[in-house]
Design a protein that fits this description.
Elements lengths: L4 H9 L5 E3 L19 E9 L2 E7 L5 E7 L5 E5 L13 E10 L1 E4 L10 E10 L8 E9 L6
Antiparallel strand pairs: 1-2, 2-3, 3-4, 4-7, 5-6, 6-8, 8-9
Length: 151
Amino acid sequence: MPLGEGYVAEFERLRFQKVARLFLGEADPDSVKGIAIPVERYDFEAAWKDNRFVFSFRDANGRIGTLTLTRPPTIGIFHVDPREQSGGGLGPILYKEWRVSAKASGTGVFTPGLGAGQFLTLILQGRGNACSSAGDFAHWMLVMRGPKAKL
C-alpha cells in the first residue's frame, strides 16, 4: 500500500527499547557478513527524522554504527486472525506485521555491508484489532539483504 501520512505519523510515535540484539538463529557468529566486528548486544536508539528512520548502535567496546532507512513509497501490511483471543466486541485480536524496505545506508561498523544492491527492511510485529497504531507493535527486526551482507 502507499506509505501515506497516517502511517508516517504512527512511525513517529514508535518507541524502542535501549538494547538491540543480533539474532543469528542457527548461524555461527563467524558467518556474519556486513558488520565489521559483530557482537550479540548493542546499546540502541531509533528515531524518525526528516522522512527516514535512523538506527544507532554502540557495542560495549564503544564501536558505533548507524543504519538508515529512507521513507519508501510503500508499506507491506500483513494481518492474521490466529483465532486465539476475542477482541471484546472490537473484533478478533490479530497478529500484525508492517514492513518497509529501502536501499541501505549507514556508517561505522556497518560500512562493510553497504553498497549497491543492499536493502534494509524494518519489520514491526504486534497484536491488536483491525485499527493499527504504534502501540500495537511490541517487537521489531531489521533485516539486511544483498550481495555484501545478510543480517
